[in-house]
Every structure is written in structure tokens, then in C-alpha cells.
């Protein structure tokens, strides 16, 4: 069952499933939570509660308020379900992956804990502005000792965040002492989350291809495995 909430006026998020809580962030396209419906349902089928918000990198704050609101709501849901809110998993696709990295880097300053991180085709580099801080990810990442494990996923046919970019971010995290796992999937940038690019709409939309279905299924299993069992 899915319920849609309005944590702040005019801003929406979907909550699916029951179990350990996962926050799932879409990429740059404004208010695109629907693109991740299929992936969200697959994660929920693993016995997880999935919180999927709308957010907009084009807002004056880069989407920061909506992203952090979704984390606060996810933590509330975890507490309501008798879980430790510091064990929630945050999964982000593309620019949402940049935001997820930033959340983990700044978790202590924000006064929260993150139980696990799944970066799905994340961007990196000087042109990838982090929605949380408004800056690119730091060149020198803070030490990862004692912080959450990070799963990094990339599509071998991705031309938007190419494998070299994604693997480079994983290497930077690992070099800073973060615990990481790297996962390669036969997919492009959209297929890795079960989506495809629609040129007419100039946006990603849910895909129907077998490769996209396989990509989403694989990613759902990785996300589910990143959180503790209920």
C-alpha cells in the first residue's frame, strides 16, 4: 500500500511498505518521484518502508529543504515503527546520489545518523553541485572511519555519469577510509533505476524494457541489503 503525504504545503512524498526505512531520492528532474515508483515498489517488496519525495534542484535552495524534510519524516517513521532513526538507509540516483553523499559527509553537523548509503549512478566533479551545501563535493573527503557503509552502483552503458566518474567517486571514498562496495550493472543511466529518457518530454520516465526491469530489480536487492532486517 502507498500513501502520499504533504510534509510541507505543496510538497509531496510517497511512503510504501513496512519494515526498516529507506529514503529514495530521484535525480535532477524536478518533482520526479514517479520515475522511481517501480524501484520503490521492488524495494518495499523486500520488507522495507520506502520514503520517496519530490524535490527540485532548480529551487533557490537547490532542493535542500525538501531533501532534509524527507530525512526528518523518514526518521519520524522509523521511530513510530520502533526502529533506531539513525539506522535509516539513504539511496540516491544521479544528482540525488550527490545529495546522499553530502548527507553522509555532513550527518554529524546536521545532528543525524545514517545507517547505510546507496549511490546509484552518482555524479561527481566541479559541475555537479551538491544540493545540500550548494557546492561540489569536497576534493578531500572527510575520514570515513566509524561511518556508514557505502554501496556504489553504476551502469556499464551510462553516458551521463560514466563508469569512470562513478568509480572515481568510489575510489575517493575508499581512499578516505570509507567502507565501500562497487556494483556494475548492465544498464544505462535510466535503466539502472528502471527508467528511460523520453526526448519528447525531455525527462526520464518509467521504462518497459527487460534490461530496465533487470536493472531495477538488482538495485532494489542492493538497497534492501544495505539496511538491517526487521
Total number of helical segments? Answer: 6
Strand content: 15-25%
The helix-and-strand class reads: alpha/beta
Query: What is the CATH topology descriptor?
Result: Rossmann fold
Distance between the termini: 18 Å
Provide the gyration radius in Å: 16 Å
- The coarse silhouette is globular
**What are the low-pLDDT stretches, counting only 5+ consecutive residues below 50?**
none
Secondary-structure element series: EEEHEHEHHEEHEEEH
How many strand elements?
10
Major sheet strand order: 1-2-4-3-5-6-7-8
Which range best describes the helical content: under 10%, 10-25%, 25-40%, 40-55%, 55-70% or over 70%? Answer: 25-40%
Query: What does the main sheet amount to?
Result: 8 strands, mixed
The CATH architecture would be 3-Layer(aba) Sandwich
- The overall number of domains is 1
Mean pLDDT, all residues? 96
What is the CATH C-level name?
A: Alpha Beta
Structure, described:
The chain is α/β, with parallel strands linked by helices. It has one domain: 3-Layer(aba) Sandwich (Rossmann fold), CATH 3.40.50.1820. 30% of the residues lie in helices and 23% in strands. The strands form two sheets. It has an eight-stranded mixed beta sheet with strand order 1-2-4-3-5-6-7-8, with helices on both faces. A two-stranded antiparallel ribbon has the order 9-10. β3, α1 and β4 form a beta-alpha-beta unit. α1 packs across α6. The longest helix has 17 residues. The radius of gyration is 16 Å and the shape is globular. The mean pLDDT is 96.
